[in-house]
Amino acid sequence: MDNFFQTLSHYFQPVFTGLEHWVGDWGIAVILFTILVRICLIPISVRQSHLAANQFVFSRKAAELQKTWTGTREALAEETPKLMRKHKFNPFAMFLNVLIQSPVLITVYATFSHLGPTAHSVLVPWVSSIGLPDPWVIVPIAIAVANGCTAMVTLIPADLMQSGSTKFSFVLMAGISLFILWSAPVATALYYGTSSLWGALERKILRRHVRRRILKHWNPETADT
């Protein structure tokens, strides 16, 4: 595992070093790197907004089908895949953005773990280097709370979602973030937090498009009658 981290650090440390030389601060370099990564991922984010709408419509149509179905369970099981194909629902495609970003997060962790005490930043003056964990755990807690808040900004409009789901998203995301960042280098938290904030802004922008796409294929007033 150490060899793996060293290999990642060997290839990506020059990238961060170049950004740091340009902006003059390691923390700002991490934020700039995050923005560049998220810009590259915009096409995937747009694609995922389509998939989120498809998933929502499929789940509602499937629930309606189960309520009105009068045939056998076997026949219902055969109809469900047809419904998935009709609405182009792929349960695994929604995780594509996460799968792509996970190696990037590991790369940031590996690079700054290797840099150790040499990566100073004015963004966190109480930490000697963002290559080290925050001894006061201020950054992990702050980023975890912020990530929980950004998780409440969903692609699906709030009036179409079940009540309580956003609160669950806050607790889940904050808990996962705190677990990941608790003893990680501060640079990891900067990447994670910046990426989450960017994602929330993307979802807010794309939400109107998602609403139109959902209402085009599903009428909630008809479904409730």
TrEMBL record:
Query: What keywords appear on the UniProt entry?
Result: Cell membrane, Chaperone, Membrane, Protein transport, Transmembrane, Transmembrane helix, Transport
Q: Which GO terms describe its biological process?
A: protein insertion into membrane; protein transport
The record's CDD domains line, in alphabetical order, gives: 5TM_YidC_Alb3
Q: Where in the cell is it found?
A: Cell membrane; Membrane
- Which GO MF terms does the UniProt record name? membrane insertase activity
Q: For this UniProt entry, which segments traverse the membrane?
A: 26-46, 92-116, 136-158, 170-192
Task: Provide the membrane topology annotation.
Answer: Multi-pass membrane protein
What InterPro entries does the entry give?
YidC/ALB3/OXA1/COX18, YidC/Oxa/ALB_C, YidC_ALB_C
Q: Does Cell inner membrane show up as a keyword for this record? A: no
What cellular component GO annotations does this protein have?
A: plasma membrane
Membrane insertase YidC/Oxa/ALB C-terminal domain ranges (all copies): 26-206
Q: Which family does it belong to?
A: Belongs to the OXA1/ALB3/YidC family.
Q: Provide the protein name.
A: Membrane protein insertase YidC
What is the species listed in this Swiss-Prot or TrEMBL entry? Paenactinomyces guangxiensis
